[in-house]
């Protein structure tokens, strides 16, 4: 899976920019404010229909313009064909998605065509943010390797909404609540099975990666909390919390409360690791997902790495580059100076260099 061509219209300071001849490893370098992160943001818009920096469409669109458009061509090694993708976003959030010129309704169809992994300043949320960031990470991974996950996840959202409504409307009580509780128990148990199966494969990959990225670190552990007492089935957990759920008016246990915990010698990684070490753990988590996708014979994801060298010393930056290189996947990396990444990239295939300046991209 690789993005061979990209056209960007009116994304931040990229009023009209193109990236032609993208290779496997692409380094975008340039001064602060030149538009490097915005290029990655445009790729993200193409694959996820949203920015990774803002929820406000107006912030993303070049000032004074009604909308932004990103078009790209994705080549798939699996099908040996190419797909053209297009996303247009208006100032009030209007969204139009196209695959091969045909309008599509769901973002999920886009995500399947262009699986993206982002490593940027927000990625620290995986360690220091709320559980929802970690659930999103987990869901992304399961989505890409287990095709039954997404429909089940949608079913689960419907069930929990209905059950919560049932919990609040006391007079409906018994019958209806029991029906939705039963449905929820089934769906939640399945979601959890998919997540557990995924996690069982992910954890050893993460451990091995961290051995290479940060070998001197103490006992690093990654654990999955499923969202309820693991000695109980989901059905039992729902039954046990029903009285309290009624009082509170919402479902307190289940996959919607799942979380991942990263600890070092028993302490939360966020509390004991330096910023640079945290970045390496985040890279380990993201790289492990890419490896897993690949080993499962699924399409490869594309990595967007914003400001790779920041917070990393040369030796660690080099290790991350080695792992990215070993994945044999397409990578877009930003940095300030031309040599920042090029000088630590392992031998063999050399990165294609793109200079970003005042919102324009040129290959050199
Ligand atoms: N909506 C917008 N319209 C026009 N320019 C913008 C908008 N949002 C941000 N910018 C400008 O775009 C430039 C590029 O930002 P960014 O991509 O973050 O730069 P870099 O990552 O190269 O440091 C900045 O100078 C910023 O002020
Ligand atoms: Mg930037």
UniProtKB/TrEMBL annotation:
Any one GO biological process: DNA synthesis involved in DNA repair
Superkingdom of the source species: Bacteria
InterPro entries xref list: DNA-binding_RecF, DNA-binding_RecF_CS, P-loop_NTPase, RecF/RecN/SMC_N, RecF_2
Keyword DNA repair: yes
Pfam families the record matches: SMC_N
Any one GO CC term of the record: cytoplasm
Cellular localisation: Cytoplasm
Domain RecF/RecN/SMC N-terminal: 3-343
Residues noted as binding ATP in the record, renumbered to the chain: 30-37
Keywords: ATP-binding, Cytoplasm, DNA damage, DNA repair, DNA replication, DNA-binding, Nucleotide-binding, SOS response
Coiled coil: none
Annotated GO MF terms: ATP binding; single-stranded DNA binding
Keyword Transferase: no
Function field: The RecF protein is involved in DNA metabolism; it is required for DNA replication and normal SOS inducibility. RecF binds preferentially to single-stranded, linear DNA. It also seems to bind ATP.
Record PANTHER family: DNA REPLICATION AND REPAIR PROTEIN RECF
Family assignment from sequence similarity: Belongs to the RecF family.
Name of the featured protein: DNA replication and repair protein RecF
Organism: Parahaliea mediterranea
